[in-house]
Amino acid sequence: MTPDLVVCGLGPAGRALAHRAVARGLTVTVVDPAPERRWTATYATWADELPDWLAPEVVAATVPRPLAWGTRAHRVDRPYAVLDTGRLQAALTLSDANVVADRAAGIAPGRVTLASGATITGGRVIDARGLARSPARAEQTAYGVIVDARSCGGLDPLFMDWRPDNGAAPGSLPSFLYAVPLDEKRMLLEETCLAGRPALTGAQLRARLRHRLDARGFRYTGDEPVEHVRFPVQGGRPGARRFGAAGGFLHPATGYSVGAALASADAVAAGQDVWPAAARVVHRLRAAGLRALLALPPDDLPLFFDTFFALPPASQRAYLSGRTDLAGTASAMSALFVALPGRLRRRVAAATLGFRFPREVEMLRP
Fold first, then answer.
1. Under a CB-based contact definition with an 8 Å cutoff, are residues 230 and 199 in contact?
2. What DSSP character marks residue 168?
3. Are 39 and 85 in contact (CB under 8 A)?
4. Which of 52, 113, 238, 262 has a C-alpha 20 to 30 A away from that of 126?
5. 28 — phi, psi (to 5°)?
6. Which residues, in sequence order, are bridge partners of residue 82?
7. Cα–Cα distance between 69 and 212 in angstroms, integer?
8. How far apart (Å, rounded) are the C-alpha atoms in residues 134 and 197?
9. pLDDT tens across 42-85, in order?
10. Name one Pfam family in it (predicted).
11. 293 in Cβ contact with 195 (< 8 Å)
C-alpha cells in the first residue's frame, strides 16, 4: 500500500513530523540509515515555542530569565527551556509507522530511491535529512563539557557570554560561553562559535573553554562527558517538500531549529502551507542578518549583541522566533540598525545591500 507520507531522516525534525502524521491517522513510512541511533546533542528552545502536544516531561530544565553578556550583562525576559534529549526522542513515538533502515539516495516528488536500489512511493515525500556540510556554507561549532552543577558555584545560566576571558587573540574569530542546566545535578558549559566560514575547530574551542574555566576558577577533572557540535547555518530552502534545517527552519543567525520544527510539525503533517509569502521574506531577512554577522569585525560582536539585547523584549522575540512575523522582524532589524554605532551600521548596510523582496511580496506592497 502506498503510504500517505514518506519522511526521509529521523533527526528531531523528521521524527516530530512523522510522529504528528501518525497521530493524525496518516499512513507513514520513515527512511533513515540508523533509525535506532540515540541522539546525543543538547537541544533547547524558548519555552513559548513548544507546542501543546509535546509531553511536559520532555523539558529537563527551565531558565526563567537567562543572562546574556556582550560587554555588559543583560537579562533576557523570556523563559528558556532545555530539553531532555532521551525523553524527547522517546516521546516522538513511531510505533505505527513503517520504519525502513536505509539511506535515501534520491528524492523526487512522490518517490524515494534508496541506497539499496529499492524505491518507495508515497502521496507526499518530505526531505528532513538536515544540511550537508560544504566549504561554501558558514557553520556553527561548539565544544562543551558536562559538569557537576555543584562545581559551578551558583553560576547564572548563560544564553551567551562574549566576555574576552577565553584566551582568544584580538581580531580572531570570536566565541562565547553557553552555560545551561541539564537537570538538577548537571550543567553544560560550552564554548560556541556562532558562525564562521570556516568556523573554529573543536580543538580551538576546547582550548578556549579550558582557558575560560581556569580564569573563572571552575573545578573540573578533564574526564567529564564531552559534547561536540558542528552543523551548517546556511543552505536551507523553504518549500513543501523539505522540513527542518533542510527546509529553512533553522535560524541562520542563531543556529536554532528544533523549536521551530516542533512548533510546525503538526501543520506540515496536515499538509498546510507553512511558507506564506511573509515567512519567505522573513527567511531572507534572517539570511541577511547572518551576512551582517559574518561581515562585522570580530572584536565588535560583543557590542553588536549589547545593542540587540537592549531592544524591547517584543522586538527580540520577533527576530528570534517570528518565523511568519514580517512586520515584527523588519521592525526589530530596523531598530537594531538605528541603534548600532555608525561604523557598525556601515558594515551591516554593506553586507545586506543584496537583499531584495521576492516578487510575490512586491505585489503586496502599496
1. yes
2. P
3. yes
4. 52
5. -130, 135
6. 44, 61
7. 14
8. 10
9. 999 999 999 999 999 999 999 999 999 999 999 999 999 999 99
10. Lycopene_cycl
11. yes
